Here is the input.
Amino acid sequence: MSQVPRSSDVAVQVSDELAAARAEVTRLLNRELELIKETQAVRTAADAQIDKVNQIVKRRLPGPITRLPPSVLSDIIYLTICNTQPASDAHRCTKRQLASVSRRWRLAILNCPQLWTTIVIDPSWSSSLVMAHVKRSGACPLDITITKWSSVSHVPQFKQLLGLLVTCGYRWRSLDIRRNSGPFATLIIESIQYMMFPAMKRVEIWETQISGRPLFLTSQYAPALESMVLSRGNSIDQIPNIAGLRSLRVYLTDDMSGSLLLSSLLPLQQLSELIIFGTGSEWPEAESIHLPALTSLTLALFNPRPALAAITVPSLIYLACSRGALNTRVVRARSVYWANVFQGFTNKFATVRHLRLFDTTNDSLVPVGDAADSQAVCAACPGVRQAELPADVTSSFFAKDSTPADHWKDLTELTIKGLMVGHIPHSLVNWLIKRKSNRNSLLKVTFCEFNAARGPGGTSGRWLASLNKLLYGHCELVLKEVPLMATLNMNSSTSLVDTRGASTIHWTYQN
Here is the structure.
Protein backbone atom coordinates (compact mmCIF):
# COMPACT_ATOMS: atom_id res chain seq x y z
CA MET A 1 0.00 0.00 0.00
CA SER A 2 1.50 3.39 -1.23
CA GLN A 3 2.49 6.06 1.18
CA VAL A 4 0.81 9.48 0.87
CA PRO A 5 3.34 12.45 0.95
CA ARG A 6 2.96 14.78 3.78
CA SER A 7 1.75 18.28 3.18
CA SER A 8 4.88 19.75 4.65
CA ASP A 9 7.07 17.97 2.09
CA VAL A 10 4.96 19.25 -0.79
CA ALA A 11 5.19 22.80 0.46
CA VAL A 12 8.97 22.61 0.68
CA GLN A 13 9.25 21.25 -2.88
CA VAL A 14 7.06 24.00 -4.34
CA SER A 15 8.99 26.63 -2.47
CA ASP A 16 12.30 25.36 -3.92
CA GLU A 17 10.95 25.34 -7.48
CA LEU A 18 9.59 28.87 -7.11
CA ALA A 19 12.89 30.13 -5.80
CA ALA A 20 14.75 28.51 -8.68
CA ALA A 21 12.37 30.02 -11.26
CA ARG A 22 12.68 33.46 -9.72
CA ALA A 23 16.46 33.17 -9.78
CA GLU A 24 16.38 32.23 -13.47
CA VAL A 25 14.13 35.21 -14.25
CA THR A 26 16.52 37.48 -12.42
CA ARG A 27 19.48 36.03 -14.34
CA LEU A 28 17.74 36.45 -17.68
CA LEU A 29 16.74 40.04 -16.90
CA ASN A 30 20.30 40.85 -15.95
CA ARG A 31 21.50 39.24 -19.18
CA GLU A 32 19.00 41.31 -21.10
CA LEU A 33 20.38 44.47 -19.56
CA GLU A 34 23.90 43.37 -20.46
CA LEU A 35 22.87 42.68 -24.06
CA ILE A 36 21.14 46.04 -24.31
CA LYS A 37 24.29 47.75 -23.10
CA GLU A 38 26.36 45.72 -25.63
CA THR A 39 23.94 46.59 -28.46
CA GLN A 40 24.14 50.26 -27.59
CA ALA A 41 27.93 50.03 -27.58
CA VAL A 42 27.89 48.27 -30.96
CA ARG A 43 25.49 50.90 -32.36
CA THR A 44 27.71 53.68 -31.04
CA ALA A 45 30.77 52.08 -32.60
CA ALA A 46 28.91 51.54 -35.90
CA ASP A 47 27.76 55.17 -35.97
CA ALA A 48 31.33 56.26 -35.39
CA GLN A 49 32.55 54.12 -38.28
CA ILE A 50 29.78 55.46 -40.53
CA ASP A 51 30.89 59.01 -39.71
CA LYS A 52 34.47 58.04 -40.45
CA VAL A 53 33.49 56.52 -43.81
CA ASN A 54 31.54 59.65 -44.75
CA GLN A 55 34.51 61.81 -43.89
CA ILE A 56 36.80 59.65 -46.02
CA VAL A 57 34.33 59.78 -48.93
CA LYS A 58 34.19 63.55 -48.70
CA ARG A 59 37.98 63.76 -48.79
CA ARG A 60 38.29 61.33 -51.72
CA LEU A 61 38.70 62.86 -55.22
CA PRO A 62 35.66 62.37 -57.47
CA GLY A 63 35.89 60.35 -60.69
CA PRO A 64 37.64 61.97 -63.69
CA ILE A 65 34.39 62.48 -65.60
CA THR A 66 32.86 64.35 -62.65
CA ARG A 67 35.93 66.59 -62.30
CA LEU A 68 35.68 67.92 -65.84
CA PRO A 69 34.92 71.64 -66.11
CA PRO A 70 31.43 72.29 -67.49
CA SER A 71 32.86 73.73 -70.71
CA VAL A 72 34.97 70.61 -71.38
CA LEU A 73 32.03 68.30 -70.65
CA SER A 74 29.87 70.33 -73.05
CA ASP A 75 32.57 70.04 -75.74
CA ILE A 76 32.71 66.24 -75.32
CA ILE A 77 28.94 65.94 -75.56
CA TYR A 78 28.93 68.28 -78.57
CA LEU A 79 31.49 66.15 -80.43
CA THR A 80 29.57 62.98 -79.57
CA ILE A 81 26.36 64.38 -80.99
CA CYS A 82 28.06 65.81 -84.09
CA ASN A 83 29.61 62.42 -84.89
CA THR A 84 26.30 60.57 -84.58
CA GLN A 85 24.49 59.87 -87.83
CA PRO A 86 21.90 60.61 -89.02
CA ALA A 87 21.76 64.12 -87.58
CA SER A 88 18.00 63.91 -87.04
CA ASP A 89 18.46 61.00 -84.62
CA ALA A 90 21.46 62.62 -82.93
CA HIS A 91 19.51 65.70 -81.92
CA ARG A 92 16.22 63.93 -81.37
CA CYS A 93 17.36 60.80 -79.48
CA THR A 94 21.07 60.83 -78.59
CA LYS A 95 20.83 64.16 -76.82
CA ARG A 96 17.99 62.86 -74.65
CA GLN A 97 19.93 59.70 -73.80
CA LEU A 98 22.99 61.66 -72.72
CA ALA A 99 20.88 64.02 -70.62
CA SER A 100 19.57 61.03 -68.65
CA VAL A 101 23.07 60.02 -67.45
CA SER A 102 23.10 62.43 -64.52
CA ARG A 103 21.80 65.76 -63.35
CA ARG A 104 25.15 67.36 -64.18
CA TRP A 105 25.05 66.08 -67.77
CA ARG A 106 21.47 67.23 -68.15
CA LEU A 107 22.36 70.74 -67.01
CA ALA A 108 25.40 70.77 -69.29
CA ILE A 109 23.19 69.94 -72.29
CA LEU A 110 20.39 72.33 -71.39
CA ASN A 111 22.77 75.22 -70.74
CA CYS A 112 24.90 74.81 -73.89
CA PRO A 113 23.29 76.78 -76.75
CA GLN A 114 25.66 75.23 -79.34
CA LEU A 115 24.01 71.83 -78.74
CA TRP A 116 20.69 73.21 -79.96
CA THR A 117 21.71 74.97 -83.17
CA THR A 118 21.06 72.04 -85.55
CA ILE A 119 17.40 71.74 -86.51
CA VAL A 120 16.23 68.96 -88.81
CA ILE A 121 12.89 69.48 -90.50
CA ASP A 122 11.77 65.93 -91.28
CA PRO A 123 8.67 63.83 -90.46
CA SER A 124 10.25 62.46 -87.25
CA TRP A 125 10.53 65.88 -85.58
CA SER A 126 7.66 67.47 -83.64
CA SER A 127 6.80 71.15 -83.35
CA SER A 128 7.71 71.11 -79.63
CA LEU A 129 11.17 69.74 -80.43
CA VAL A 130 11.74 72.44 -83.05
CA MET A 131 10.62 75.15 -80.64
CA ALA A 132 12.90 73.78 -77.90
CA HIS A 133 15.87 74.08 -80.25
CA VAL A 134 14.92 77.60 -81.32
CA LYS A 135 14.58 78.70 -77.68
CA ARG A 136 17.61 76.95 -76.15
CA SER A 137 19.95 77.95 -78.98
CA GLY A 138 19.65 81.53 -77.78
CA ALA A 139 21.09 83.94 -80.33
CA CYS A 140 23.46 81.39 -81.92
CA PRO A 141 23.41 80.83 -85.70
CA LEU A 142 21.21 77.92 -86.84
CA ASP A 143 22.00 75.02 -89.18
CA ILE A 144 18.80 73.94 -90.92
CA THR A 145 18.24 70.64 -92.72
CA ILE A 146 15.06 69.92 -94.70
CA THR A 147 14.91 66.26 -95.69
CA LYS A 148 12.88 63.08 -96.31
CA TRP A 149 9.57 64.69 -97.31
CA SER A 150 7.65 62.67 -99.89
CA SER A 151 4.12 61.83 -98.76
CA VAL A 152 1.41 64.37 -99.56
CA SER A 153 -0.23 63.54 -96.23
CA HIS A 154 2.72 65.21 -94.48
CA VAL A 155 2.17 68.61 -96.12
CA PRO A 156 0.40 70.14 -93.06
CA GLN A 157 3.18 68.95 -90.72
CA PHE A 158 5.83 70.28 -93.10
CA LYS A 159 4.22 73.71 -93.26
CA GLN A 160 3.86 73.84 -89.47
CA LEU A 161 7.49 72.93 -88.77
CA LEU A 162 8.97 75.23 -91.40
CA GLY A 163 6.66 78.03 -90.27
CA LEU A 164 8.26 77.91 -86.82
CA LEU A 165 11.62 78.82 -88.37
CA VAL A 166 10.54 81.57 -90.73
CA THR A 167 10.69 84.23 -88.02
CA CYS A 168 14.35 83.45 -87.23
CA GLY A 169 15.68 83.39 -90.79
CA TYR A 170 18.19 86.07 -89.79
CA ARG A 171 19.94 83.38 -87.69
CA TRP A 172 20.22 80.72 -90.41
CA ARG A 173 23.90 79.87 -90.93
CA SER A 174 23.46 76.93 -93.32
CA LEU A 175 20.66 75.32 -95.27
CA ASP A 176 20.76 71.68 -96.36
CA ILE A 177 17.92 70.50 -98.64
CA ARG A 178 18.08 66.82 -99.59
CA ARG A 179 15.98 63.85 -100.64
CA ASN A 180 12.64 65.62 -101.00
CA SER A 181 10.20 64.54 -103.68
CA GLY A 182 6.68 65.21 -104.89
CA PRO A 183 5.35 68.71 -104.21
CA PHE A 184 7.84 69.50 -101.47
CA ALA A 185 10.48 71.08 -103.72
CA THR A 186 7.92 73.67 -104.76
CA LEU A 187 6.71 74.10 -101.17
CA ILE A 188 10.25 74.71 -99.94
CA ILE A 189 10.88 77.39 -102.57
CA GLU A 190 7.52 79.06 -101.91
CA SER A 191 8.15 79.10 -98.15
CA ILE A 192 11.62 80.65 -98.21
CA GLN A 193 11.67 82.45 -101.56
CA TYR A 194 11.44 85.96 -100.12
CA MET A 195 13.16 85.39 -96.79
CA MET A 196 16.29 87.34 -95.91
CA PHE A 197 19.31 85.31 -94.77
CA PRO A 198 21.96 87.86 -93.73
CA ALA A 199 24.07 85.26 -91.83
CA MET A 200 23.77 82.26 -94.17
CA LYS A 201 27.17 81.03 -95.40
CA ARG A 202 26.43 77.58 -96.87
CA VAL A 203 23.66 76.05 -99.00
CA GLU A 204 23.47 72.43 -100.16
CA ILE A 205 20.74 70.97 -102.40
CA TRP A 206 20.75 67.18 -102.95
CA GLU A 207 18.22 65.03 -104.79
CA THR A 208 15.58 67.74 -104.76
CA GLN A 209 14.27 69.06 -108.06
CA ILE A 210 14.90 72.81 -108.05
CA SER A 211 15.22 74.81 -111.26
CA GLY A 212 15.59 78.41 -112.36
CA ARG A 213 17.34 80.98 -110.20
CA PRO A 214 15.80 80.92 -106.69
CA LEU A 215 15.93 84.31 -105.02
CA PHE A 216 17.29 82.90 -101.76
CA LEU A 217 20.47 82.03 -103.69
CA THR A 218 21.21 85.63 -104.66
CA SER A 219 23.31 88.32 -102.98
CA GLN A 220 20.19 90.36 -102.31
CA TYR A 221 18.74 87.72 -100.00
CA ALA A 222 21.91 85.86 -98.89
CA PRO A 223 24.76 88.40 -99.04
CA ALA A 224 27.13 86.33 -96.82
CA LEU A 225 26.89 83.10 -98.84
CA GLU A 226 30.34 81.50 -99.30
CA SER A 227 29.70 77.84 -100.19
CA MET A 228 27.11 76.26 -102.50
CA VAL A 229 26.45 72.63 -103.47
CA LEU A 230 23.99 71.91 -106.29
CA SER A 231 24.13 68.15 -106.60
CA ARG A 232 22.28 65.49 -108.56
CA GLY A 233 18.58 66.18 -109.04
CA ASN A 234 18.59 69.95 -109.51
CA SER A 235 18.34 71.83 -112.84
CA ILE A 236 20.28 74.97 -111.97
CA ASP A 237 23.03 75.65 -114.52
CA GLN A 238 23.36 79.40 -113.96
CA ILE A 239 24.94 80.51 -110.71
CA PRO A 240 23.57 83.78 -109.31
CA ASN A 241 25.98 86.66 -108.88
CA ILE A 242 27.07 86.17 -105.27
CA ALA A 243 30.08 88.37 -104.70
CA GLY A 244 31.47 86.44 -101.71
CA LEU A 245 31.02 82.90 -103.08
CA ARG A 246 34.26 80.93 -102.57
CA SER A 247 33.29 77.29 -103.05
CA LEU A 248 30.95 75.78 -105.64
CA ARG A 249 30.03 72.18 -106.39
CA VAL A 250 27.54 71.57 -109.20
CA TYR A 251 26.16 68.57 -111.10
CA LEU A 252 25.34 68.86 -114.80
CA THR A 253 23.05 66.54 -116.75
CA ASP A 254 23.08 65.97 -120.54
CA ASP A 255 20.60 68.79 -121.16
CA MET A 256 22.32 71.36 -118.95
CA SER A 257 24.62 73.95 -120.51
CA GLY A 258 28.27 74.04 -119.50
CA SER A 259 28.55 77.35 -121.32
CA LEU A 260 25.85 78.97 -119.18
CA LEU A 261 27.43 77.56 -116.02
CA LEU A 262 31.00 78.75 -116.68
CA SER A 263 29.84 82.11 -118.05
CA SER A 264 27.85 82.73 -114.88
CA LEU A 265 31.07 82.30 -112.88
CA LEU A 266 32.79 85.32 -114.43
CA PRO A 267 31.47 87.81 -111.83
CA LEU A 268 32.56 85.53 -108.97
CA GLN A 269 36.02 86.97 -108.52
CA GLN A 270 36.50 85.36 -105.08
CA LEU A 271 35.69 81.81 -106.19
CA SER A 272 38.58 79.60 -105.03
CA GLU A 273 37.14 76.07 -105.28
CA LEU A 274 35.13 74.63 -108.18
CA ILE A 275 33.84 71.06 -108.52
CA ILE A 276 31.82 69.98 -111.57
CA PHE A 277 30.28 66.51 -111.91
CA GLY A 278 28.18 64.87 -114.62
CA THR A 279 28.09 65.52 -118.36
CA GLY A 280 26.89 68.91 -119.58
CA SER A 281 26.85 70.29 -123.12
CA GLU A 282 27.56 73.43 -125.18
CA TRP A 283 30.81 74.47 -123.53
CA PRO A 284 32.23 77.98 -124.12
CA GLU A 285 35.15 78.86 -126.38
CA ALA A 286 38.76 78.19 -125.38
CA GLU A 287 40.21 80.49 -122.70
CA SER A 288 37.05 82.58 -122.54
CA ILE A 289 36.45 82.10 -118.81
CA HIS A 290 38.97 83.81 -116.52
CA LEU A 291 38.88 82.76 -112.87
CA PRO A 292 41.77 84.59 -111.20
CA ALA A 293 41.17 83.40 -107.60
CA LEU A 294 40.53 79.71 -108.33
CA THR A 295 43.04 77.50 -106.47
CA SER A 296 41.20 74.14 -106.53
CA LEU A 297 39.48 72.58 -109.55
CA THR A 298 37.82 69.15 -109.78
CA LEU A 299 36.28 67.96 -113.05
CA ALA A 300 34.47 64.62 -112.87
CA LEU A 301 32.95 64.85 -116.34
CA PHE A 302 32.38 62.37 -119.15
CA ASN A 303 34.47 64.71 -121.29
CA PRO A 304 36.46 67.22 -119.23
CA ARG A 305 38.50 68.61 -122.14
CA PRO A 306 36.06 71.40 -123.21
CA ALA A 307 35.90 72.69 -119.64
CA LEU A 308 39.71 72.61 -119.28
CA ALA A 309 40.08 74.44 -122.55
CA ALA A 310 37.54 77.12 -121.68
CA ILE A 311 39.04 78.33 -118.41
CA THR A 312 42.20 80.21 -117.52
CA VAL A 313 43.30 79.73 -113.92
CA PRO A 314 46.55 81.59 -113.11
CA SER A 315 46.39 80.70 -109.38
CA LEU A 316 45.42 77.03 -109.63
CA ILE A 317 47.21 74.76 -107.11
CA TYR A 318 45.03 71.61 -106.98
CA LEU A 319 43.67 69.91 -110.10
CA ALA A 320 41.61 66.71 -110.06
CA CYS A 321 40.48 65.45 -113.44
CA SER A 322 38.66 62.39 -114.73
CA ARG A 323 39.83 60.42 -117.73
CA GLY A 324 36.35 60.90 -119.11
CA ALA A 325 34.34 59.01 -121.67
CA LEU A 326 33.02 59.76 -125.14
CA ASN A 327 29.27 59.46 -124.85
CA THR A 328 26.80 59.32 -127.72
CA ARG A 329 23.17 58.33 -127.91
CA VAL A 330 24.02 55.38 -130.15
CA VAL A 331 27.33 54.09 -128.86
CA ARG A 332 27.84 53.03 -125.26
CA ALA A 333 30.14 55.27 -123.23
CA ARG A 334 33.75 54.28 -123.92
CA SER A 335 36.88 55.41 -122.16
CA VAL A 336 39.39 57.77 -123.74
CA TYR A 337 43.13 58.30 -123.33
CA TRP A 338 44.58 61.02 -121.15
CA ALA A 339 46.03 62.64 -124.24
CA ASN A 340 42.48 63.32 -125.43
CA VAL A 341 42.03 65.39 -122.27
CA PHE A 342 45.36 67.25 -121.96
CA GLN A 343 46.81 67.33 -125.49
CA GLY A 344 47.71 70.86 -126.59
CA PHE A 345 47.62 72.34 -123.07
CA THR A 346 51.41 72.66 -122.66
CA ASN A 347 52.18 74.67 -119.50
CA LYS A 348 48.51 75.69 -119.25
CA PHE A 349 48.44 74.44 -115.65
CA ALA A 350 52.04 75.22 -114.70
CA THR A 351 51.00 76.48 -111.25
CA VAL A 352 49.41 73.15 -110.25
CA ARG A 353 51.26 71.52 -107.36
CA HIS A 354 48.80 68.71 -106.55
CA LEU A 355 47.46 66.62 -109.45
CA ARG A 356 44.89 63.86 -109.11
CA LEU A 357 43.79 61.70 -112.06
CA PHE A 358 40.86 59.31 -111.77
CA ASP A 359 38.17 57.47 -113.74
CA THR A 360 34.45 58.21 -113.73
CA THR A 361 33.48 54.84 -115.24
CA ASN A 362 33.91 51.25 -114.10
CA ASP A 363 34.72 50.04 -117.58
CA SER A 364 37.01 47.01 -117.38
CA LEU A 365 38.38 47.79 -120.85
CA VAL A 366 40.09 51.03 -119.85
CA PRO A 367 42.91 51.82 -122.29
CA VAL A 368 46.34 51.93 -120.70
CA GLY A 369 47.98 54.30 -123.19
CA ASP A 370 51.69 54.83 -123.71
CA ALA A 371 54.42 57.26 -122.70
CA ALA A 372 53.34 59.76 -125.35
CA ASP A 373 49.85 59.71 -123.85
CA SER A 374 51.16 60.51 -120.36
CA GLN A 375 53.54 63.08 -121.85
CA ALA A 376 50.55 65.33 -122.49
CA VAL A 377 49.62 65.29 -118.80
CA CYS A 378 53.15 66.08 -117.63
CA ALA A 379 53.56 68.82 -120.23
CA ALA A 380 50.31 70.49 -119.16
CA CYS A 381 51.22 70.27 -115.45
CA PRO A 382 55.03 70.50 -115.21
CA GLY A 383 55.22 71.79 -111.63
CA VAL A 384 53.51 68.89 -109.85
CA ARG A 385 54.80 68.02 -106.37
CA GLN A 386 52.03 65.66 -105.28
CA ALA A 387 50.58 63.22 -107.81
CA GLU A 388 47.69 60.77 -107.38
CA LEU A 389 47.50 58.32 -110.28
CA PRO A 390 45.38 55.26 -111.12
CA ALA A 391 47.47 52.08 -111.14
CA ASP A 392 46.71 51.31 -114.78
CA VAL A 393 48.82 54.27 -115.98
CA THR A 394 52.04 53.42 -114.13
CA SER A 395 53.49 51.65 -117.18
CA SER A 396 52.99 54.77 -119.31
CA PHE A 397 54.06 57.41 -116.78
CA PHE A 398 57.16 55.47 -115.78
CA ALA A 399 58.14 53.88 -119.11
CA LYS A 400 61.70 52.56 -119.38
CA ASP A 401 62.90 54.44 -122.45
CA SER A 402 61.04 57.74 -122.14
CA THR A 403 59.69 58.57 -118.70
CA PRO A 404 57.12 61.40 -118.69
CA ALA A 405 57.26 61.59 -114.89
CA ASP A 406 60.85 62.85 -115.16
CA HIS A 407 59.35 66.24 -116.07
CA TRP A 408 58.15 66.51 -112.46
CA LYS A 409 61.47 67.72 -111.06
CA ASP A 410 59.96 68.80 -107.72
CA LEU A 411 57.88 65.68 -107.10
CA THR A 412 57.82 64.77 -103.38
CA GLU A 413 54.74 62.52 -102.98
CA LEU A 414 53.27 59.88 -105.27
CA THR A 415 50.03 57.99 -104.61
CA ILE A 416 49.01 54.95 -106.67
CA LYS A 417 45.36 53.92 -106.37
CA GLY A 418 43.76 50.66 -107.45
CA LEU A 419 46.85 48.46 -107.75
CA MET A 420 45.81 44.87 -108.39
CA VAL A 421 46.73 42.64 -105.47
CA GLY A 422 49.45 40.25 -106.59
CA HIS A 423 50.76 42.63 -109.28
CA ILE A 424 54.21 44.25 -109.13
CA PRO A 425 54.44 47.61 -110.97
CA HIS A 426 57.92 46.93 -112.39
CA SER A 427 58.07 50.12 -114.44
CA LEU A 428 57.52 52.19 -111.30
CA VAL A 429 60.02 50.09 -109.32
CA ASN A 430 62.70 50.57 -111.98
CA TRP A 431 62.04 54.30 -112.15
CA LEU A 432 62.36 54.65 -108.37
CA ILE A 433 65.63 52.70 -108.39
CA LYS A 434 66.98 54.91 -111.18
CA ARG A 435 65.77 58.03 -109.40
CA LYS A 436 67.52 57.01 -106.17
CA SER A 437 70.74 56.23 -108.04
CA ASN A 438 70.74 59.82 -109.31
CA ARG A 439 70.89 60.88 -105.65
CA ASN A 440 67.48 62.47 -105.65
CA SER A 441 65.68 62.77 -102.31
CA LEU A 442 63.55 59.82 -101.25
CA LEU A 443 60.06 59.98 -102.68
CA LYS A 444 57.08 59.20 -100.48
CA VAL A 445 55.10 56.50 -102.34
CA THR A 446 51.65 55.47 -101.12
CA PHE A 447 49.61 52.52 -102.38
CA CYS A 448 45.91 52.52 -101.46
CA GLU A 449 42.43 51.44 -102.61
CA PHE A 450 43.77 48.08 -103.77
CA ASN A 451 41.92 46.01 -106.36
CA ALA A 452 41.52 42.57 -104.76
CA ALA A 453 38.93 41.24 -107.19
CA ARG A 454 41.41 39.48 -109.44
CA GLY A 455 45.11 39.12 -110.12
CA PRO A 456 47.86 36.53 -110.43
CA GLY A 457 48.95 34.98 -107.19
CA GLY A 458 45.62 35.74 -105.53
CA THR A 459 46.19 37.51 -102.23
CA SER A 460 49.37 35.75 -101.20
CA GLY A 461 51.40 37.50 -98.53
CA ARG A 462 54.53 36.77 -100.59
CA TRP A 463 53.45 39.44 -103.04
CA LEU A 464 53.47 42.09 -100.30
CA ALA A 465 56.90 40.93 -99.10
CA SER A 466 58.23 41.06 -102.67
CA LEU A 467 56.88 44.58 -103.22
CA ASN A 468 58.38 45.79 -99.97
CA LYS A 469 61.75 44.17 -100.77
CA LEU A 470 61.91 45.73 -104.24
CA LEU A 471 61.10 49.23 -102.97
CA TYR A 472 63.06 49.10 -99.73
CA GLY A 473 65.60 51.91 -99.57
CA HIS A 474 64.37 53.51 -102.81
CA CYS A 475 61.36 55.37 -101.39
CA GLU A 476 59.33 55.98 -98.26
CA LEU A 477 56.73 53.25 -98.72
CA VAL A 478 53.22 53.63 -97.27
CA LEU A 479 50.58 50.91 -97.61
CA LYS A 480 47.01 51.72 -96.68
CA GLU A 481 44.29 49.11 -96.10
CA VAL A 482 46.02 46.26 -97.87
CA PRO A 483 43.60 43.34 -98.32
CA LEU A 484 45.45 40.19 -97.27
CA MET A 485 44.27 36.60 -97.12
CA ALA A 486 45.90 33.65 -95.38
CA THR A 487 44.81 30.02 -95.54
CA LEU A 488 45.15 27.94 -92.41
CA ASN A 489 44.59 24.18 -92.43
CA MET A 490 43.15 23.38 -89.04
CA ASN A 491 42.58 19.87 -87.72
CA SER A 492 39.14 19.42 -86.24
CA SER A 493 40.61 17.56 -83.26
CA THR A 494 42.58 20.65 -82.21
CA SER A 495 40.03 23.24 -83.22
CA LEU A 496 37.11 24.47 -81.21
CA VAL A 497 34.94 24.04 -84.29
CA ASP A 498 34.89 21.51 -87.09
CA THR A 499 36.47 23.40 -90.00
CA ARG A 500 35.97 20.53 -92.45
CA GLY A 501 39.12 21.45 -94.37
CA ALA A 502 40.81 24.79 -94.91
CA SER A 503 39.61 28.00 -93.34
CA THR A 504 40.17 31.45 -94.84
CA ILE A 505 40.94 34.46 -92.66
CA HIS A 506 40.85 38.05 -93.95
CA TRP A 507 42.49 41.01 -92.26
CA THR A 508 43.63 44.51 -93.10
CA TYR A 509 47.16 45.84 -92.79
CA GLN A 510 48.00 49.51 -92.63
CA ASN A 511 51.41 51.03 -92.10
Observations:
- Confidence is low (pLDDT under 50) at residues 326-335, 493-511.
- The chain is about 35% helix and 20% strand.
- The first strand starts at residue 118 and ends at 121.
